[in-house]
Amino acid sequence: MTMGRHYFIVAGKRATLMSLALLVACSADDAENKPDVQKVEVGYVSLTSQSVPQLEELRGRVVAYATAEVRPQVDGIVRSIDFTEGREVKQGDTLYEIDPRKFQAAYASAEAALKKAEAASQGYQATYDRNKTLARTNAVSAQTLDDAQSNLLQAQASEEAARADLDAAKIDLDNATIKAPIGGMIGTSSVSVGALVTENQTDALVTIRQIRPIHVDLVDTSANMLRVRSEIDAGQLGRERDGPATTTLTLENGKAYDEQGEVSFADMVVSEETGTFTVRATFPNERRILVPGMFVTAKVHFGNLTNAFLVPQRALTRSDDGTATVYLVSDDGKAKKRSVTTNGTSGNDWIVTDGLKNGDKLIVDGFQKLEDGKAVTAVVAEIDENGVVKQSLTSGSTADTKSADQKEAGQ
């Protein structure tokens, strides 16, 4: 019995070994018959360099083109207010009337004083002319002639002083009518009819802001300024035309502003606290949509990056040290990892300025089991303007997948 039991055990082991050997052989045959089972199917797009607009997104605030704080130039009682608050006024429009009676009296008095001085001058002029004629025949002494000339000069000086007093009185009389120094939108009056105002008082009577055209003050970093200058010096950043950089705006409600502006000024002083400087853009603002104090987001077009590549955001990743990398399909059918240099974004794409060349096959889908040197089966894919892949992969990759940024935004 013991020998029989050992026989069956040995026989059973032999059978098991034979079965395992058979399974291994079958697996080997299957592997030979399916040589592509280890390959990863990926979708790719062919890259072509292009001219990409260099747009810098900056935050800013709307500022009036010109601001005038209206203050009285004479003392008096406000007799009338001749404008509607919150409306547009033109340069030279009457805003306030100050009681003019005392200024009219002062003007009349100055006018009379001038006439008196003119009469005195005429009298002294006649005396001088007569003595000058008599002096030729020695009928009067030289002293008499000198006295006549001195009196004439004093009378002429008094006449000029009286004329200046009349001009001053006229200015005060004119200033009793307060007019708009500039055109624009007028604010709220700080005084009412009957109020006493004083010359050059601290508080303004009203403020006028010119908003057609209007300024937008944007904040940019000195580092970005240096980067743009280096791109221009290197010939990477070209302009379609000469002239100032153009600007577009996005309003606080997320809607695009329909007018285009131009950069009109850049402050040459960088803030020591923030490392930023001010870029000023000017907009026509014909419909008066932009209002001083409003926050906006601007895209400034500094020029075009030449020979740049647009890489879908889903196709680019960054390592822990911030290095940007993409996967390409090599000539021998393998995934090749490559480091690239980016320069901002354009829509749903990264702008790549270095590391790629025309004709490169950029992998945009099928990253689940992808690694450097992995054999791949490449299938042509399409990506729409929203970053959605339009190629379904047979290996189970997700089709019509949005970019990672869109997923995070919940779009």
From TrEMBL:
<dbReference type="InterPro" id="IPR058624">
    <property type="entry name" value="MdtA-like_HH"/>
</dbReference>
<feature type="domain" description="Multidrug resistance protein MdtA-like barrel-sandwich hybrid">
    <location>
        <begin position="67"/>
        <end position="208"/>
    </location>
</feature>
<dbReference type="InterPro" id="IPR058625">
    <property type="entry name" value="MdtA-like_BSH"/>
</dbReference>
<dbReference type="InterPro" id="IPR006143">
    <property type="entry name" value="RND_pump_MFP"/>
</dbReference>
<keyword id="KW-0732">Signal</keyword>
<feature type="signal peptide">
    <location>
        <begin position="1"/>
        <end position="30"/>
    </location>
</feature>
<feature type="compositionally biased region" description="Polar residues">
    <location>
        <begin position="391"/>
        <end position="401"/>
    </location>
</feature>
<dbReference type="Pfam" id="PF25917">
    <property type="entry name" value="BSH_RND"/>
</dbReference>
<dbReference type="Pfam" id="PF25967">
    <property type="entry name" value="RND-MFP_C"/>
</dbReference>
<dbReference type="Pfam" id="PF25944">
    <property type="entry name" value="Beta-barrel_RND"/>
</dbReference>
<keyword id="KW-0175">Coiled coil</keyword>
<feature type="domain" description="Multidrug resistance protein MdtA-like C-terminal permuted SH3">
    <location>
        <begin position="307"/>
        <end position="369"/>
    </location>
</feature>
<dbReference type="InterPro" id="IPR058627">
    <property type="entry name" value="MdtA-like_C"/>
</dbReference>
<feature type="domain" description="Multidrug resistance protein MdtA-like alpha-helical hairpin">
    <location>
        <begin position="107"/>
        <end position="174"/>
    </location>
</feature>
<dbReference type="Pfam" id="PF25876">
    <property type="entry name" value="HH_MFP_RND"/>
</dbReference>
<feature type="region of interest" description="Disordered">
    <location>
        <begin position="391"/>
        <end position="411"/>
    </location>
</feature>
<feature type="domain" description="Multidrug resistance protein MdtA-like beta-barrel">
    <location>
        <begin position="213"/>
        <end position="303"/>
    </location>
</feature>
<comment type="similarity">
    <text>Belongs to the membrane fusion protein (MFP) (TC 8.A.1) family.</text>
</comment>
<protein>
    <submittedName>
        <fullName>Membrane fusion protein (Multidrug efflux system)</fullName>
    </submittedName>
</protein>
<dbReference type="InterPro" id="IPR058626">
    <property type="entry name" value="MdtA-like_b-barrel"/>
</dbReference>
<feature type="compositionally biased region" description="Basic and acidic residues">
    <location>
        <begin position="402"/>
        <end position="411"/>
    </location>
</feature>
<feature type="coiled-coil region">
    <location>
        <begin position="107"/>
        <end position="179"/>
    </location>
</feature>
